[in-house]
Each structure stands twice: as C-alpha cells, then as structure tokens.
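Lab manual, section 2.4: Encoding a predicted structure.

Procedure: take the sequence of the chain (296 residues), apply the prediction step described in section 2.3, and record the output as structure tokens. A sample record is shown.
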Amino acid sequence: MPNQPAGCQVPQNSPFVIVGGNSLVAPWLMDRLHAAGRGGDVLSRNTVQVPQGFTFSAMDLGRARNWIAPENATIISLLPLWILAQYLPRFIGVKAIIAIGSTSLFSKAESADSIERATAAKLESAEQAFQEWGARSNVHSTLLRATMIYDCKRDMNITRMADFIRRFHFLPLAAPAQGLRQPIHADDVACAIFKSMDNPAVYDKILNIAGGEVLTYRAMVERVFAALNIPPRLVMLPENWLEKGFSWASKIGFLRETAFGVSIFRRMNQDLIFDVAEGLRLLDYKPRPLQLTFDS
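Recorded output:
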C-alpha cells in the first residue's frame, strides 16, 4: 500500500462515490485516497483524470435521470450545495453524505450586491434541506463549511488575484485592507473530507473549516506578490472610489467580471474569520498556514 498522507488516518473500507469530480478539491482528495489504498467512482460532467483504482463516469445528474447512488455507499459531494440539494432523492439508501458548503452563507448575507445575497440565501436554504433530508432518510450528513479555498492553479480567489498582478504588476485595494482572512488550501479541504469518512464523531454535524493562519487582506496580497517575485505595488484607494470605478468599467464593457461583484471592495475591510475549534477537534486535521506556489 502507498504511504498514507501526513496527518490523515485511513478510513474503513466502505464504498464511496465522489460527485463533482472537476472541482478544485477533487484531485487532492483522490491523491489522498489513492495513497491510502482506496478506490472509488468519480462522477463529473467533464472528463477528469483519475488515479489507478478509481473509475470515472461522465455524468450530468440533471440528465441521468435513472442513476441512483449505490446502496450503503459514502457520498462525497464537491458540488455547490444548492445543486446537491436538488438531487438528494438520488441518494436514498446510502450510508452517509459528506458535502462542502461555504462560509459565504454569512459573509455575503448582507452584501450590497443582490447576486451575492441570493447566493447566501441559496446556501442557507440548501443547508436546511440537506440536514432535514438526512434526518428524514436515515442518512448521516456531514457538512464542511469552507472559507476561501485556493490551490494556486484554478481557484477564483488567490489565483485570480495572481493573474491580475502578473498582467499589471499592481493591485488596487480598499484602504486600509485590514479585514482578516483564513484562506484554506484545497488539499487541507481534502484532508478534512478524508478525516470525515467513516467518522461517527462528525455524523449529522455542520463544521467550519479554515486554513491554519489568520492574516489581513493586505498581508495576504503582499504574500501573493512575494510568491510571484514581483515587488508589491498596492494602490490604496477609498472603497467608494473602487466601487464606482468597478461599476463604470463593467457598464461600458471594459471589465467583464463574473467571479465577484462590487462588494468585494467593502469586504476587504471586514473580518471574515470563523470559529473552527470544533472541526479541528473532531477531525484532528492540521491545516497549513498560507502557502503559495504558482506555476511559472
């Protein structure tokens, strides 16, 4: 058997299915499972590479109307939680579902952006549906609410920031950009999922998970510059200037940004940190501090 990942014990050998195999977390989770001698089925609309011992099924749950999850399996959902909630009846008879949620449920609930408020509302509704369905269906449910997830490859947070810095060699920030953050690496999310498998201590619980370091938004940005070996050039501007500039650039078509809205500037000075003590205790995982390594 390959060496198991540091800090993770091998779960019991119950069958499992990963739903959402094209997500940021999926490759890291498959690597951990493979290293532990595990295999399973991976579902995704898009083709993904899977390690030896895994099977891949190209599947859109919205179209594969006859697909039902294997009985007594553990389901690992990497789908947006509101999408998982639509398909919960497909999982009747499984042993457990481990799902990824988001602390955006809290951070975007009072956003000035109507799209962000709608996202928070969808998360809240999906969380309730997930818990109620699990209790009603005798299926153990575990929900891991993650903070800002990054992988230095495809994420829409830190990697998107790095792409902008590479292109322009500066970054505008809402002064003083002192809001606190807890970014979590995708591999540490994978470890938290791994430690949730066949773990009765986290059955029917919602746990916040975050990275191992709290730092200000400005400090986080400075670390991105350092990782890119680019001298930090921070253009510190009033929040309302940035919001107006963003709105103007979007209206005239100069900026076509769908990953975030104008409220991102306001959040640069809001503390978005969450109590993760219960998750650290029950999962016994040790998330890393912010570590950035970008492809050249």
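Check your result against the sample. Residues 16-150+182-214+273-283 form a domain with the Rossmann fold fold (CATH 3.40.50.720).
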